[in-house]
């Protein structure tokens, strides 16, 4: 084996400017007697300031990969660094705290709390961080304004349309200005034009120079909106570029 | 986060009310049944407590309570009077008799014969009339609850004539007394008169009531009486306790009330447990989202504890209020005369509520703890 001269600022073979860096990430699931390997040694670097899409067929491992990237699912093997922190070396409590400070989630089923209004729902991460409720609500209202639903701030989730609920969920993901935003299938339930509008919105509010934004989708209608596309097939990266390869 | 937890719960009206109902129901059942139980068995002590002046009760060694007593020879009175520390000693008679009312009904009654000279042995207060009426011929004083049982609440029994074991008796006063365990009608009369009502066996003296001299304790004097006379002597409190113990040992009451209390607890666990786990299941996605966003299990625990605490606080309040309301509503009923809620009972039901919530809350929490944060993307 040859000795290589390493970039001193590089961590564990990760590029110094990588927002997320995965090395050899493998994930197994037990299905009854047998073990299925869903991810096979994923090595990738996600950059800040870009809208990164993770695409692929159903069952290819997209959700599993971003779950591991954002610290809610332990890999079977491999390591994950998020802004330089080896997150699966943290204790359980430290990992939870890390997520609270650094990660914004947009869930497909928005998982809003039905009995509190839009502003309070959007304020949840701030309240969880310990901010007073009134201040947190003010900040959440400002975020709802940016998403053009400031006038819905006092409504309960079930008084909002699906699209409005999604905006509340987006506001909740961004209100605490996380450095990483992850989003699973944001447009799956929407028609083509609403889907594009949500993506435009995400690009506008979620993409920033110091923030990485990863979106999982198999919605090929919006592939052109990505800065970078990572394609998974059976748990392996088969394509990584600014556009999709021909034939898709 | 506590605020969010509370709103999550109160926002789900049906389950919130279901939980409140479960806790309130358990509290009510446990508090109310224990209250009735305690008051009921304390009636076993009513015979001892109704005679305010007696500090020591002297009886045959086999006698157990005011109602379960074997008669003494009349010489016992003088023997007791001779014991040091006995300030006074008076005869006291208790016997069962049958009464025929004006309408021809037959009723079992208790006859209490009190000392002719001092009238010691009567209840402390009269509800109507004066104790002096006993000096008139054939006089009896009836107890207030007994009046209602025998004549109804609307009839003034003063002046009513009774046929008491074939002897004439006239009611001339009503005593304000603690009802006996059986709520039986009690007739008080002078000792000499009572001897006439109770057909003649040789010994009819049931108890000797004793007051102790200054500087002596009842317990000391009771010990000395036992030593000097060979009779059994108990202080007022000992004798009252013996009456309570007799009921506990000789009736199915503790078992019956015990079963109801346990049922109250079990039903509480069932209602609250089911509703709580339904609530958690309905909100499991939200809890999962909170866990993913970055809420630790410790804080989730505090959230669920706050929810349980709120339900417990309000539900328990309703339950205790319900018991107080129940007691108040029935306070006019002679059966409930003198009933009170001992302070220990609300504490016991509070303990039961805490246990119910701890059990059901722990079960509910387990499913939240088991939820993988990764499940939110599914
Ligand atoms: N908790 C789990 N237990 C067992 N198997 C799992 C689990 N989660 C995912 N899998 C399996 O892993 C594989 C990849 O799942 P994943 O959800 O990552 O796919 P996906 O690319 O997101 O698919 P989709 O586009 O349908 O959402 C699937 O075969 C799935 O059945
Ligand atoms: Mg998926």
UniProtKB/TrEMBL annotation, chain B:
It is a multi-pass membrane protein. InterPro entries: ABC-4/HrtB_transporter, ABC3_permease_C, MacB_PCD. Residues 260-373 form the ABC3 transporter permease C-terminal domain. Pfam families: FtsX (PF02687), MacB_PCD (PF12704). It is found in: Cell membrane. Residues 54-227 form the MacB-like periplasmic core domain. The keyword DNA damage does not apply. Keywords: Cell membrane, Membrane, Transmembrane, Transmembrane helix, Transport. The chain crosses the membrane at residues 16-41, 257-280, 300-331, 343-365. It comes from the Bacteria. The keyword Membrane applies. PANTHER family: ABC TRANSPORTER, MEMBRANE PROTEIN, HEMIN TRANSPORT SYSTEM PERMEASE PROTEIN HRTB-RELATED. This is ABC transporter permease. It comes from Parerythrobacter lacustris.
């Amino acid at each position: 084996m040859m000795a290589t001269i390493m970039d001193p600022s590089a961590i564990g073979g990760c590029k110094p400017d990588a927002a997320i860096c995965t090395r050899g990430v493998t994930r197994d699931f037990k299905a009854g007697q047998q073990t299925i390997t869903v991810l096979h040694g994923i090595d990738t670097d996600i950059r800040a300031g870009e809208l990164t899409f993770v695409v692929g067929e159903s069952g290819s491992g997209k959700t599993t990969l971003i779950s591991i990237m954002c610290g809610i699912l332990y890999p079977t093997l491999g390591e994950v660094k998020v802004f330089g922190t080896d997150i699966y070396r943290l204790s359980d409590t430290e990992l939870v705290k890390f997520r609270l400070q650094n990660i914004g989630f947009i869930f497909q089923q928005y998982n809003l709390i039905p009995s509190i209004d839009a502003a309070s729902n959007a304020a949840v991460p701030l309240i969880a961080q310990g901010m007073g409720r009134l201040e947190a609500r003010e900040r959440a209202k400002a975020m709802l304004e940016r998403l053009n639903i400031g006038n819905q701030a006092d409504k309960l989730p079930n008084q909002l349309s699906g699209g409005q609920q999604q905006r509340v969920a987006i506001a909740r993901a961004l209100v605490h200005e996380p450095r990483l935003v992850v989003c699973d299938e944001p447009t799956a339930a929407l028609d083509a034009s609403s889907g594009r509008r949500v993506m435009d919105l995400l690009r506008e509010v979620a993409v920033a120079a110091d923030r990485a934004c990863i979106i999982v989708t198999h919605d090929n209608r919006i592939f052109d909106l990505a800065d970078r596309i990572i394609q998974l097939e059976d748990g392996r990266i088969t394509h990584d570029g600014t556009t999709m390869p021909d034939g898709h | 986060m506590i605020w969010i937890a509370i709103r999550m719960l109160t926002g789900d009206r049906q389950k919130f009310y279901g939980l409140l109902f479960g806790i309130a129901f358990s509290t009510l059942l446990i508090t109310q049944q224990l209250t009735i139980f305690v008051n009921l068995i304390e009636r076993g002590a009513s015979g001892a407590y109704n005679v305010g002046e007696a500090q020591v009760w002297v009886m045959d060694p086999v006698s157990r309570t005011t109602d379960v007593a074997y008669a003494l020879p009349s010489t016992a009175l003088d023997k007791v009077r001779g014991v040091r520390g006995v300030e006074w000693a008076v005869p006291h008679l208790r016997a069962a008799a049958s009464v025929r009312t004006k309408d021809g009904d037959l009723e079992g009654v208790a006859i209490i014969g009190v000392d002719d000279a001092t009238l010691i042995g009567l209840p402390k207060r009269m509800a109507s009339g004066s104790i002096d009426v006993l000096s008139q011929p054939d006089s009896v004083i009836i107890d207030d609850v007994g009046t209602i049982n025998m004549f109804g609440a609307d009839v003034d029994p003063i002046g009513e004539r009774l046929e008491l074991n074939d002897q004439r008796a006239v009611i001339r006063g009503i005593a304000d007394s603690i009802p006996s365990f059986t709520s039986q009608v009690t007739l008080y009369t002078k000792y000499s008169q009572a001897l006439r009502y109770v057909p003649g066996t040789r010994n009819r003296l049931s108890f000797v009531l004793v007051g102790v001299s200054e500087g002596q304790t009842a317990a000391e004097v009771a010990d000395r009486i036992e030593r000097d006379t060979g009779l059994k002597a108990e202080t007022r409190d000992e004798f009252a306790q013996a009456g309570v113990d007799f009921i506990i040992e000789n009736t199915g009451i503790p078992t019956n009330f015990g079963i109801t209390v346990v049922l109250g607890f079990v039903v509480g666990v069932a209602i609250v447990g089911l509703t709580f786990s339904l609530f958690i299941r309905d909100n499991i996605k939200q809890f999962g989202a909170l866990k993913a966003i970055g809420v630790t299990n410790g804080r989730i625990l505090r959230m669920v504890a706050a929810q349980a605490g709120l339900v417990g606080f309000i539900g328990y309040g309703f339950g205790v209020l319900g018991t107080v309301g129940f007691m108040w509503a029935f306070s006019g009923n002679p059966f409930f005369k003198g009933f009170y809620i001992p302070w220990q009972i609300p504490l016991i039901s509070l303990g039961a509520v805490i246990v119910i919530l701890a059990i059901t809350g722990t079960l509910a929490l387990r499913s939240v703890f088991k939820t993988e944060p990764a499940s939110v993307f599914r």
